[in-house]
Amino acid sequence: MAISVFDLFKVGIGPSSSHTVGPMRAAYLFGSRLHDTDLLPRVVSVRCELFGSLGATGHGHGSVPAVVLGLTGRQPHLVDPVEAQPVVAAVREARGIALAGKHRIAFSVDRDVVLHRTRRLAFHSNGMVFTARDTAGDVVERRAYYSVGGGFVLDESETGDEAERSSTQVSSESVIREDTTPVPYPFASGDELVALARTHGLRISDVVLANESAWRPETETRAGLLHLWSVMRECVERGTTTSGVLPGGLRVRRRAAELRGHLEAEGAGATDMDRVTLDALAVNEENAAGGRVVTAPTNGAAGIVPAVLHHASRTVPGFDDDAVARFLLTAAAIGQLFKRNASISGAEVGCQGEVGSACSMAAGAFAELLGGTPEQVENAAEIGIEHNLGLTCDPVGGLVQIPCIERNAVASVKAITAARMAVRGDGVHHVSLDKAIRTMRATGADMKVKYKETARGGLALTVVEC
Ligand code: SF4
After folding, report:
1. Which of 138, 158, 178 is the last residue of a domain?
2. Which residue spans within 390-462 are E strands per DSSP?
């Protein structure tokens, strides 16, 4: 199995990994492809069509500006969140865009980015088709891309689906083309992971660190992990010092800064669980505001891993840089299992795939820092997902705000509880992590489409927007 920790944890901007980061990356890839194949000079128009969940909730999830930014040659991990809005506004006003940052063409955001609310591509719910034309109106290039969760993007050539353009057929398959880099400790299930750790006398984090060394030196891996930690801390700091109302029209008030003030006033009276809640709210408010976050493993669920890691930094004796690395590596091991054997996409399996996966990852990672054995880590991860099974995705107004922000806070506390329960046990338990992940996948397949990031069911229906 070859999914890197840096595939699961990526720096990007909010509000959604699948609906913001993925489309931006796809648009960037399309522009780069035109450039790399020398087709760019022939292009006079570009049209981007968004299908499925992207078409249904793209407006609320910032997919349209993400596409515009990607077409200008900007990438999610590099774009400055502060410049993003002005760039899109300038494209709107000028009715023109510098494609791939190099080739100026006429472009109307409202006309050339099309959201199909009820059509979807067969391969995946989050499909996109980009079409470039020349002066005669002939197609210069047309390409389908799929945002398959957590900011992962597949080109149509990676899906065996090149003929697919506009089917309405539903597919629940998540086909991930595996990196074929040989790693020293390949694993495809939780059972295999625990067995590897046991056989070689390793911790879960050691297994992943050894595997990461197949891609880069250990020093680079450690430096990359500390960079992620620094982005997480900056995100919490911004989130706990910024007030106001979140964008999108729901007029949701940011609460983290005010809560921080209350907790500081309470001093020793505030519990660390209050801080956990604060940190998760801060990250997800930043995400909802289009700020810089670490996908963990998605943007909608980006608050849980940082909130639990912050908790560990305050409560685990001897917490240091190595503890940061071990936490993120262990979380990545668990995230790989969800990505490989089920899904981390709300559009595919509902929120259990986002918040559920993140809760499981954080629970297992915290269990390792608490000194848990591989069996206890697996147990913690299983508890973390078991009590999120069936969780639907029903964001009000299609915005990653309600229920997403509070849900991260609750799941963070749940992850800590799961870890503490697990390390006080002996690792023996009835439901294995593998069975829980299989259950999540089956539940997601049974779940009606209206509960899978379409904003057509649940709270999205019962809460009246004003
Ligand atoms: S409800 Fe869950 S899956 Fe849906 S947008 Fe919110 S965090 Fe993501």
Report:
1. 158
2. none
Number of domains in the chain: 2
In a domain, 39, yes or no: yes
At residue 378, φ and ψ (nearest 5 deg) are -60, -40
Structural domain includes residue 6 = no
Alpha helices by DSSP H, listed for 316-452, are: 321-341, 346-349, 355-369, 374-386, 404-423, 433-446
**Do 379 and 426 have their domain in common?**
yes
Place of tokens 């408010």: 285
Residue 61 Cα: closest atom of ligand 1:
5
Model confidence pLDDT, tens digit, residues 268-320? 889 999 999 999 999 999 999 999 999 999 999 999 999 999 999 999 999 99
Is 400's C-beta closer than 6 angstroms to any atom of ligand 1? yes
Distance 148 CA to ligand 1 centre (A): 14
Say if ligand 1 is within 6 A of residue 250 CB: no
Cβ of 348 closer than 6 Å to ligand 1, yes or no, is no
CB of residue 351 inside a 6 A radius of ligand 1 = yes
- 173: confidence class by pLDDT, cuts 50, 70, 90: very low
With a CB cutoff of 8 Å and minimum separation 6, the contacts of 264 are none
Examine residue 175 and state whether it is found in any structural domain, yes or no. no
| Residue 272: how many other CB atoms lie within 10 Å | 12
- Based on the fold, state whether residues 292 and 367 are members of the same structural domain: yes
- How many other CB atoms are there within 10 angstroms of residue 77's CB atom? 16
What's the CA gap between 248 and 61, in Å, rounded?
Answer: 9
Domain, as residue range, for 308: 190-462
Q: Is 395 in the pocket of ligand 1 (CB under 6 A)?
A: yes
One domain, residues 322 and 218: yes
